[in-house]
Specification:
The protein contains 7 helices and 11 strands. By secondary structure, the chain is α+β, with helices and mostly antiparallel strands. It folds into 2 domains: 205 residues, no CATH class; 166 residues, Glucose Permease (Domain IIA) (Distorted Sandwich), CATH 2.70.70.10. Strands 1, 2, 3, 4, 5, 6, 7, 8, 9, 10 and 11 form an 11-stranded antiparallel beta sheet that branches.
Length: 404
C-alpha cells in the first residue's frame, strides 16, 4: 500500500500538468486565431481603400471564416471543460453541505443535552452517585469527553463552513468565466454570420462581372505559367552538371538537361541541414495564405482549372519585409512580369524563391543568414502580396510542409 501512494501521487501530478499544458495550448491557439482575424480585417480594410480585386478579398474572407469557425470550436471545448469542472465542484459543495448539516445537527443535540443538564449540581450528583470509584472515574471521563466532543464538533463545523465558502466562491468564479465565454462565443457566431454575408456578396460580385474577372484570370494565368517556366529554367541551369574543359570550347556552357547535380562538401552539409529542419523553417513574411500549393479550381467558377501553383501566395501588410528562411547564397535576382523582382537563394541542393519585391537588399553571390532581410514586398495593382516557392533540385515542394 505504501508503494502505491507515490505512484498514485505521481499520476495525479502528471494529470494536473497535462491539463495545465492543454489549457496553455488552447489559450495560445485562441490568441493566434484572434491575431490572424485582426490581421485579415486590416488587410481587407487596406484593400477597400486601394483595390477592387474581389478575388483576393474572397480568399481573405474565407480564411477569416475558417479561423472564426476554429475559434468557436476552441470556445466550445473550453465551455464543455468548464461545465464539467462546475459539475465536479457542485458535487464537492453538495458533499460539504451534507457534512456541514450532519455536524450541525449532531452539535445541536449536544448543546440541547448540555442545556437541559446545565445545573452543575446534576453533574456532581451523577458522579457522586457512582457505586464505586471505577464507575465514578468512567462517569467523569464521559462528562469530560462530552465537553471535548462539543469543542471538537464546533471546530469541525467552523472548518467545514470555511471550506464550503471557499468552494462556493470558486464555483461562482467558474460560472462567471463560463458566462463570459458563452458571451464571447455568441459574439464570434454573430461575426461569423456577418463574414458569411461578406462571402456571399463577393461571390455575387464575381458572378455578376464574370467577363471582367475571367479576363483578369486569363492574364494572371499567363503570368503564373511564365513564372513557373522561368523558375524551372533558372533552377535547371543552377543544377545542371558543367561539361569538362576538354569537351567544350565555352566555359560558360552547361551540360544537357538531365545531367546529374554537382555539389561540394559544404553544399551537401547545407542541404542535409536544410532537410533536417523540415517543418521548422520560419515563414519568410507574416501574412495570410490566400493561394496554397498544388492544383486548384476557381473558388467561384468551379469548372475553371487554375494553373498548378508551385508555391504559396500570401496577403501581407503594406511595406512588409521578406526574410531568408535559411542560410544560403543568392543565386540570382530576376524581374518577371506580374511578380516584379524575385530573389533566388540556394541552400545546397535546395532553392527558395522570393517574389513580388519592390526593392532588393542583397546582391547575386552574397551569402545570407536565416532571417536576413532580402527585400520589401511591392504593392502591385493596389494589392500587397508575396509569392514564395521552395524546390529540391528540380522538384517543387509544398512550402507549408517545410515552414513552421
Amino acid at each position: 500500500m505504501k508503494r502505491l501512494i507515490p505512484i498514485v501521487l505521481g499520476l495525479l501530478l502528471l494529470g494536473a500538468a497535462a491539463s495545465a499544458q492543454d489549457t496553455r495550448r488552447q489559450e495560445s491557439r485562441k490568441a493566434q486565431l484572434e491575431k490572424e482575424i485582426a490581421t485579415i480585417n486590416k488587410q481587407l480594410k487596406d484593400n477597400a481603400k486601394s483595390s477592387s480585386r474581389a478575388l483576393t478579398d474572397l480568399a481573405l474572407v474565407r480564411r477569416k471564416i475558417s479561423a472564426r469557425q476554429e475559434l468557436i470550436a476552441e470556445s466550445d471545448r473550453e465551455i464543455h471543460a468548464l461545465d464539467d469542472s462546475i459539475r465536479v465542484r457542485q458535487k464537492e459543495i453538495d458533499r460539504l453541505q451534507a457534512r456541514y448539516d450532519t455536524l450541525t445537527l449532531y452539535y445541536n443535540r449536544l448543546v440541547r443535552s448540555a442545556y437541559k443538564n446545565r445545573d452543575s449540581r446534576i453533574w456532581y450528583m451523577y458522579i457522586l452517585s457512582s457505586e464505586n470509584i471505577g464507575q465514578a472515574v468512567r462517569r467523569f471521563g464521559y462528562l469530560k469527553g462530552l465537553s471535548k466532543n462539543m469543542s471538537d464538533q464546533a471546530r469541525r463545523i467552523q472548518e467545514t463552513s470555511a471550506e464550503l465558502e471557499v468552494e462556493k466562491d470558486r464555483l461562482a468564479g467558474m460560472r462567471d468565466e463560463a458566462r463570459a465565454l458563452r458571451s464571447q462565443r455568441q459574439a464570434d457566431v454573430d461575426a461569423l454570420r456577418g463574414e458569411e454575408g461578406e462571402n456571399a456578396t463577393l461571390v455575387a460580385r464575381l458572378q455578376k462581372d464574370r467577363k471582367k474577372y475571367q479576363s483578369d484570370l486569363q492574364k494572371k494565368n499567363r503570368e503564373v505559367e511564365a513564372l513557373n517556366r522561368e523558375i524551372a529554367e533558372i533552377i535547371r541551369k543552377a543544377t545542371a552538371k558543367p561539361k569538362s574543359s576538354s569537351s567544350t570550347s565555352s566555359s560558360g556552357n552547361n551540360a544537357n538537361k538531365g545531367g546529374k547535380t554537382t555539389s561540394t562538401a559544404v553544399d551537401e552539409k547545407l542541404s542535409n541541414s536544410f532537410a533536417s529542419n523540415k517543418g521548422r523553417l520560419p515563414w519568410p513574411v507574416e501574412g495570410t495564405v490566400i493561394e496554397s500549393y498544388g492544383q486548384h479550381y476557381h473558388p467561384v467558377y468551379k469548372n475553371v482549372k487554375l494553373p498548378f501553383n508551385n508555391g504559396v501566395t500570401l496577403s501581407v501588410a503594406r511595406g512588409a519585409q521578406a526574410h531568408a528562411v535559411f542560410d544560403g547564397t543568392v543565386a540570382q535576382i530576376v524581374v518577371i512580369p506580374g511578380y516584379n523582382q524575385c530573389v533566388l537563394v540556394q541552400h545546397g541542393s535546395y532553392f527558395t524563391f522570393y517574389c513580388k519585391l519592390k526593392s532588393v537588399a542583397v546582391k547575386t553571390g552574397e551569402k545570407v543568414k536565416t532571417g536576413q532581410v532580402l527585400g520589401t514586398v511591392d504593392t502591385i495593382s493596389g494589392e500587397d502580396q508575396f509569392h514564395f516557392q521552395l524546390w529540391k533540385e528540380r522538384t517543387p515542394q509544398n512550402p507549408e510542409n517545410w515552414l513552421r
